[in-house]
Structure prediction request, 124 residues.
Amino acid sequence: VQLQASGGGLVQAGGSLRLSCAASGRTFSSYAVGWFRQAPGKEREFVAAVKWGGGSTYYADSVKGRFTISRDNAKNTVYLQMNSLKPEDTAVYYCAAAPVWWSSSWPLNGMDYWGEGTQVTVSS
Prediction:
C-alpha cells in the first residue's frame, strides 16, 4: 500500500481544510487508516483514525468535535475534514495504514505504511 497525503495549506484561525490520503493497492480496504501530525520541535502525535469499513472512528481529545475522518474505499481515499482550526493545529500531517485497530493510544510503530506529509499552517 502506498499513501499520499494532500490538501494542506495556509488558513486563518477558525477556518477549515480538508486533507486527503490517496492510497494505491488492492488491499487498502482491509487497513485501518490514521492521521498523525508533527509540529516543529514536537513529537509526532495521533490525530484520528477510521476502521477499514468506515464504521468506527477514533479521535484525539484535542481535535474531537472539530475534525471528522471518513473514507471512501471505492476511491481508495481517506479524508480528514478540519473545522474551527486553531494555531496549535499547525503541523505536518501524515496518514498511515495499519492492519489492526486500536480503541485507544494508536502507536506510531504500529503502522505498516506511511505517506508523505502535507503542511497545515493556521495563522492567528
Q: What stands out?
A: The chain is about 0% helix and 50% strand. Residues 12 and 123 are 5 Å apart (CA to CA). The radius of gyration is 13 Å.
